């Protein structure tokens, strides 16, 4: 199979994909994004659900605050 054929087949598969099966899940708190993009409590996922992990805004905010705290602590120790 030539790379061109593979690219064409992948493109066709992506165009025909059922994106409603794709669920965004926060890798930290495990909440999942609903249809409006709001992260809600985990629910049972169907066996054919495709899960893609990321970080929800709440966990992102906490992670950034923690990084800022650590940076301040390091700066205070170095001073
Ligand atoms: Zn989260």
Oligomer: single chain
| Largest sheet geometry | 2 strands, parallel
Strand segment tally: 4
Strand content: 15-25%
User: What is the percent of helical residues?
Assistant: 40-55%
- Structural class assignment: alpha+beta
Principal-axis shape equals elongated
How large is the count of helical segments? 2
Q: List ligands, each type once.
A: zinc ion
Counting structural domains, the number is 1
Strand order of the largest sheet: 1-4
* First-last Cα distance: 62 Å
Give the averaged pLDDT, no decimals: 90
What Rg, in angstroms, do the CA atoms define? 20 Å
How is the secondary structure organized here?
Elements: H1 3-16, E1 22-26, E2 32-33, E3 39-40, E4 50-54, H2 57-78
Parallel strand pairs: 1-4
Antiparallel strand pairs: 2-3
The structure holds zinc ion.
Describe the 3D structure.
By secondary structure, the protein is an alpha+beta fold. The chain has one domain (18-78). It is built from two helices and four strands, in the order αββββα. It has helices at residues 3-16, 57-78; strands at 22-26, 32-33, 39-40, 50-54. The longest helix has 22 residues, at 57-78. The protein is elongated. Zinc ion binds next to helix 2.
Task: Tell me briefly what this model is.
With 79 residues, this protein is of the alpha+beta class. The protein contains 2 helices and 4 strands. 46% of the residues lie in helices and 18% in strands.
